[in-house]
Amino acid sequence: MSIRTIRQLPYEHDELFQGEISRMIPYHRMYGKSYCVPALTVYRESELAELQAASEAVHRIYRKVQQFIQRYMPDEYLVERLGIHPGLLRAARMEVAPDGITRQDWIVGEAGIKCIENNTDTPTGIPEVAYLEGKLLEVLHSEGMSRDDIALHGPSSGMDEAIQSALTELIHFYSRKGLGTKVHFTCYDWHIEDQTNTKYIMRLCEQAGFEVVYAPLEELEIIPNEGLYHRGEQIHILYRLYPLEYLIDDREEDTGLEVGQALMDMVADGKIGLINPPQHIITQSKGFTATVWSLYERNEQTPAFCGFRLFDDRELEVIRTYLLPTYFEPSVFLQNQEPYVAKGIWGREGKGTHLIEQPEPEERLEGVLGVVENVKADQPDLLHQVDAPLTPEQEEAAHIAAYYEGQPKIYQQLWPMQSAEVQTEEGLFHGYVLTGIFVIGGRFAGVLPRIGEKVTGDMAYYCAAAVANEPSNPPAV
């Protein structure tokens, strides 16, 4: 298998990530190690062209299936198969024509390119792609390196404008519904990555001519059936970098008031406009990926159900080419002894994801994927020292593991990832490339390459994208 080309920059981490870059990306180090690396992930022009066309085509299919679910699927399906909280159903069924900010995750390699996930509720990685990618290319070009280095260019140069255009469409949509044009931006203020992403988008919104306010989650106040407030001012349009599946369970500690439900009721009543729109909770669920595949396999049956054939021949080809077989149970893979991935439907940063590379026909699923097995693998001492007190960090890790492992799962064909080697502060890292593709307002907008383990987690390295020109006439062999 080929290895992805990495262009290492001639700088140590601290030499590069300082000054303006450090202010713009303050989380260039996370969890006690470097997150951004002084290197570039190189893609060929032909690869980028295919990713652009494929990501937009896949996005159109996602939008079509989302609307199909909103209009034709019963509440029971959204709750039981997609895992959507009943308190979110009314808001999830609200159809918003303008599109928001989404990020698809792709595997790019010799076997072909495949979209394996879709992050549509609260995608991050925006300052890295929209700002840092360009800065690292500037550094490379300023060094006066080889002609090949100078020819490298960034695929994400239009991302700022794409965000502004998408926000403008959404704000005008909400304005026509009587919600004005002022936007409050919220996230947890203590979470430096979320805060940076939120404020980056907020600045772009302000530059587009809208009035904006930063309103940390900690400062929001809700009065049920009346409104959401920040320092006494009522909020009508809210950008929130906070997942809806978390928000719906939020309660006031002192009173027990279900503030998340109260907020979503006001959204469903048209009193508050959300960015991203609440319909994105449908596509965020990994159960949505299994639904797309199920509808693909049953396309000829849809006329009997809804009166029309859901996918045309061109869309069927896009699904066949760029998506992977994904199901709500693993029997197909077990019967064929075919490698697969099990994913929690609300899994994030690789949590709740397991690779089954050598399945056995008689394999007992709960033995492979159960919580106890994973605790045993990750925290062996906890099982043998049941009376020993846990540290706060261990308690938090156990709570997070239980949350993700307790979710319903989907099962997806395992697709080979392309390997890469990148020099880091910790030494040479040999890992695998996951290519995030931002689709904003329905259009390709940027590339977020991360190099991590086979399951890309929150310890993966961001290694900015660059595109190499290809010769128009390949040399004869």
Question: Can you put this structure into words, describing what you see?
Answer:
Helix 3 (45-72) packs across helix 15 and helix 8 crosses helix 9. The strands form six sheets. Strands 5, 6, 18, 19, 20 and 21 form a six-stranded antiparallel β-sheet that branches. The chain has a four-stranded parallel β-sheet with strand order 8-7-12-13, with helices on one face. A four-stranded antiparallel β-sheet has the order 14-17-15-16, with helices on one face. With 477 residues, it is of the alpha+beta class. A hairpin with a 3-residue loop joins strand 9 (220-223) and strand 10 (227-230). The longest helix has 28 residues, at 45-72.
Strand fraction equals 15-25%
Instruction: Please report the distance between the alpha carbons of the first and last residues.
Output: 22 Å
Number of helices: 20
- Shape descriptor: globular
- Low-pLDDT windows of residues: 365-386
Class from secondary-structure proportions? alpha+beta
Mean pLDDT: 91
What share of residues is helical?
25-40%
Q: What is the radius of gyration computed over CA atoms, rounded to a whole number of angstroms?
A: 23 Å
- Annotation, overall tally of beta strands: 22
Largest sheet, if any? 6 strands, antiparallel
